[in-house]
């Protein structure tokens, strides 16, 4: 009888395959929010090359010779088109903790998708620069919301042993979005008619993946940890069983649910988490890590390469028919392929190891880009060396600091402040992105290839930062990470409550009615006590 009730090897394998497939499906579905972010990056760079766009918004005009020439407003307008989007993203990341805690992670992702669609419609229908700016800001808010809550959702729904890999899918989808947008817009530029509908089509194509994402999100469950935090235990247990592809009464589901429930109950005993909670011992160091890792991620120079890569190609004197376009496509393809090993290595070797190796590789790559770039001034073919090491930089970034930072920030915060901590860390990402994107062209114009020495220097600094300060989180459940960071507040609150209950149970109880009598002024009756 015992043998007949045990699951067969075939049943175990079937359950494991089903569990793995469903978790990857959930990660890819929710990470469509990252795809939209990448698609937005890929669009705007190539839209700037469309003559129809430049003429419509006054970036270029025909000169006396009948040739297109930049207007005095070109640099200002292009700067603001990029900057306003990033400011919108920072704003979205700043406010996302409120809906994420109240309506849940999945619904907040869908809310971000709706906001993004509104922004995309504004951009597509722009009749002037004001509506374009408004569309960029609104779309940025939607992306900021999703960039915060998507890694959070994946982290809370994933099994411990594959959590890092699944959160890293968010970064993979960003790279896929950039590449797909580059391909689509290259086709539009090459074959579509050259009028206002050209750039409107480019902006409008964003609506396709956004609508697909909204529909696909309806097929995935709510976060079980969020459900339990809202006292919806039965729904939380059902969602957990569904995520693990196991019956609701399975022992593994019960054990994981009990661990989640215990951790959340302990956190509730500490009290409702406000923003001041982020300054408390055991929390503020984690906030510091989340903010600084996102800060360093942007100072690797990744978005300078993505935003201005074609300009770099031209600056090396390697112009040719379609040369810069080919460089962008190859660069984006490498970005995708190099991200894939990170999905495996993040659980094989851990977060710390990848960030250390990545920091060293990023530093060396940027230093060599500087060397080859400067030498190419007197020996042009040497410029290909700079291109090669740009590709090496992309490789080192793509499997390390690209995915790992998103994974790390999504798992280090306790449940009661997870949305706020993730929100603040993501604001750091977008705010730094905005600053770097705004100042990088000025620095490039001033010191040319020596700009890459700045990024190389940051590679050295962030490597040392990780070695000295960043603890490993691989193999730990979200509930166990309090111990990693030395946060005992929830545990101490539980122990204190247990001591108080124990003391109360040991206290002597008087059976004399008069002994508990209380006079009208709230004081114990002295004569009763005397008796």
Detail the topology: elements first, then pairings:
Blueprint: H1 2-5, H2 9-30, H3 32-47, H4 51-56, E1 60-62, E2 68-70, H5 74-95, H6 97-102, H7 105-124, H8 129-157, H9 163-191, H10 196-204, H11 207-217, H12 224-229, H13 233-244, H14 251-270, H15 284-298, H16 302-315, H17 323-348, H18 351-375, H19 383-399, H20 401-411, H21 418-447, H22 451-469, H23 481-484, H24 489-506, H25 526-530
Antiparallel strand pairs: 1-2
Write a concise keyword list for the protein shown above.
mainly alpha, two-stranded antiparallel ribbon, 25 helices, globular, disordered C terminus
Describe this protein's structure.
The chain has a two-stranded antiparallel sheet. It is built from 25 helices and two strands. Residues 496-501 and 510-531 have low confidence and may be disordered. Strand 1 (60-62) and strand 2 (68-70) form a beta hairpin. The chain is globular. The protein has helices spanning 2-5, 9-30, 32-47, 51-56, 74-95, 97-102, 105-124, 129-157, 163-191, 196-204, 207-217, 224-229, 233-244, 251-270, 284-298, 302-315, 323-348, 351-375, 383-399, 401-411, 418-447, 451-469, 481-484, 489-506, 526-530, and strands at residues 60-62, 68-70.
Q: Globular, elongated, flat, extended or rod-shaped: what is the shape?
A: globular
Strand order of the biggest β-sheet: 1-2
Topology, number of strands: 2
Order of helices and strands: HHHHEEHHHHHHHHHHHHHHHHHHHHH
Structural class by secondary-structure content:
mainly alpha
* Low-pLDDT runs: 496-501, 510-531
Q: What gyration radius follows from the Cα positions, in whole Å? A: 28 Å
């Amino acid at each position: 009888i015992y043998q007949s009730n045990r699951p067969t090897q075939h049943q175990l394998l079937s359950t494991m395959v089903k569990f793995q497939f469903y978790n990857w499906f959930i990660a890819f579905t929710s990470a469509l929010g990252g795809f939209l972010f990448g698609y937005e990056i890929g669009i705007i760079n190539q839209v700037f090359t469309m003559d129809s766009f430049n003429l419509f918004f006054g970036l270029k005009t025909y000169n006396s010779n009948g040739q297109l020439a930049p207007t005095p407003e070109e640099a200002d307008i292009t700067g603001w088109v990029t900057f306003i989007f990033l400011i919108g993203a920072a704003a979205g990341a700043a406010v996302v903790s409120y809906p994420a805690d109240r309506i849940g992670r999945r619904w907040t992702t869908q809310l971000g998708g709706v906001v993004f669609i509104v922004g995309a419609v504004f951009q597509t229908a722009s009749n002037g620069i004001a509506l374009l700016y408004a569309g960029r800001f609104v779309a940025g808010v939607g992306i900021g919301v999703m960039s915060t809550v998507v890694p959070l959702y994946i982290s809370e729904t994933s099994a411990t042993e594959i959590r890092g890999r699944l959160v890293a899918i968010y970064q993979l989808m960003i790279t896929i979005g950039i590449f797909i947008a580059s391909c689509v817009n290259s086709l539009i530029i090459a074959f579509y008619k050259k009028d206002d509908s050209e750039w409107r089509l480019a902006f409008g194509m964003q609506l396709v993946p956004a609508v697909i994402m909204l529909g696909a999100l309806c097929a995935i469950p709510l976060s079980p940890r969020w459900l339990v935090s809202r006292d919806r235990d039965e729904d939380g247990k059902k969602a957990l069983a569904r995520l693990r592809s196991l019956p609701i009464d399975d022992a593994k589901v019960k054990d994981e649910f009990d661990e989640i429930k215990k951790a959340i109950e302990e956190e509730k005993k500490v009290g409702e988490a406000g923003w001041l909670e982020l300054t408390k011992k055991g929390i503020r160091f984690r906030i510091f890590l989340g903010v600084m890792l996102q800060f360093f991620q942007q100072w690797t120079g990744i978005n300078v390469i993505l935003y201005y890569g074609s300009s770099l190609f031209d600056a090396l004197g390697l112009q040719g028919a379609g040369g810069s376009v080919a460089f962008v496509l190859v660069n984006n393809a490498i970005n995708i392929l190099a991200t894939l090993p990170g999905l495996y290595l993040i659980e094989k070797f851990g977060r710390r190891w990848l960030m250390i190796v990545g920091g060293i590789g990023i530093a060396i790559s940027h230093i060599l880009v500087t060397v080859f770039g400067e030498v190419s001034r007197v020996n042009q073919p040497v410029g290909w060396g700079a291109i090669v090491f740009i590709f090496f930089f992309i490789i080192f970034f793509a499997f390390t600091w690209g995915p790992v930072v998103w994974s790390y920030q999504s798992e280090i915060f306790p449940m009661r402040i997870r949305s706020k901590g993730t929100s603040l860390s993501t604001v750091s990402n977008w705010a730094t992105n905005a600053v770097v994107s705004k100042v990088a062209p000025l620095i490039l114009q001033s010191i040319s290839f020596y700009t890459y020495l700045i990024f190389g220097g940051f590679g050295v600094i962030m490597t040392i930062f990780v070695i000295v300060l960043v603890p490993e989180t691989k193999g730990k459940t979200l509930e166990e990470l309090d111990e990693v960071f030395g946060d005992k507040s929830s545990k101490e609150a539980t122990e204190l409550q247990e001591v108080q209950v124990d003391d109360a149970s040991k206290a002597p109880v008087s059976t004399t009615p008069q002994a508990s009598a209380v006079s009208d002024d709230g004081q114990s009756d002295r004569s009763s006590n005397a008796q």
